Amino acid sequence: MIRIALPNKGRLSESARELLERAGLEFDMRERALQASLGPDFTALFVNARDIPEFVADGAADVGITGGDLVAEYGRPLDTLLDLGFGRCRLAVAARDDSGIASIDDVPAGSRVATVFPNLTRRYFESIDRRVTLVPISGAAEIAPHIGLADIIVDLVSTGSTLKVNGLREIATVLDSTALLIGRTDLSADAESGARVRELTGALESVLRAQGQRYLMANVPRSVLADIKRILPGINGPTIIDVMDGGEFVAAHAVVSQRDIYRTIAQLREVGAQGILVTKIERLMP
Ligand code: AMP
Questions:
Q1: Using an 8 Å Cβ cutoff, are 209 and 264 in contact?
Q2: Pick from 26, 139, 228, 229: CA 20 to 30 A from residue 256's CA?
Q3: What CA–CA distance (Å, rounded) separates 145 from 152?
């Protein structure tokens, strides 16, 4: 049984669960709410996103889904199996709008820095050779510069609107982050576990690859096949199938990027395509 540690709440929990479901793993929540069975090979453990790197490093879970920021902050070696793309944010340095600090060069030595990420913050200021005093906190960093607890903060930002609302200005990026699938470093020591985890990684990868891609089908005149090959590059060129209409038309099928669908349909219609159908793809394994 492979144990997958998943965030029990917060920004990443919904997307992590959705991704596993789209890969074909169904949550059976009849058991205790802190665990769920995920088919015959996997068990999900629902824990705090911040604790997941430790769970996986200690072997309490075999793999986990959590933020790259939390993996980097934890610091101990873990295998990054897959970048999942969601939960995109950055760990940023921010100062009060009225502080006169407009860039990282303006941060005076000896500044107090409030953060939930002491390790990454320490490393960052060491890397730019600036001596600062860390003020480790457990949340709500935005308030720290307004109540005299710190001069600047290092906190997660996605749109920047929370900083703005709190009268803060972003002045530098410490780290870019997305959700990751991580695994314990000794997974491949057991052939069976290694194989199950590779299957899981491949399944999740196939879901991510299918995002933003569409399957397009159209009946096209046989006489314009050269144009069709140009319009529908597909993965290995379009699939062409006979239509039982006496040979005038063939069916062309191809995977097309969603970005290109609008233009592709217009081009297909120009060369006489009919019965155009576009569908979502659940999983894509080249
Ligand atoms: P949460 O459990 O909701 O506090 O957040 C857990 C993780 O969500 C963080 O460690 C980040 O990896 C990710 N995340 C994405 N965007 C943001 C954001 N704007 N603020 C905080 N966390 C974010």
A1: no
A2: 26
A3: 6
Helix (H, G, I), strand (E, B) or coil at 61: coil
CATH superfamily, domain at 2-86+178-210: Periplasmic binding protein-like II (3.40.190.10)
Pick the CATH number of 89-177 from 3.40.630.10, 3.30.70.1060, 3.40.190.10, 3.40.225.10: 3.40.190.10
From ligand 1's centre to the CA of 59, what distance in Å?
24
Taking the alpha carbons at both ends of the chain, their separation in whole angstroms is 28
Q: What is the pLDDT of residues 79-108, one digit of tens each?
A: 999 999 999 999 999 999 999 999 999 999
Q: Taking the complete model, does pTM exceed 0.85, yes or no?
A: yes
Dihedral (Cα; 115, 116, 119, 122), 10-degree rounding: 0
Q: Which of 89, 91, 138 to mutate to test the pocket of ligand 1 (most atoms within 8 A of CB)?
A: 89
CA 174 – CA 197 distance, rounded (Å): 31
The continuous run of DSSP H or E covering 255 comes out as strand 249-257
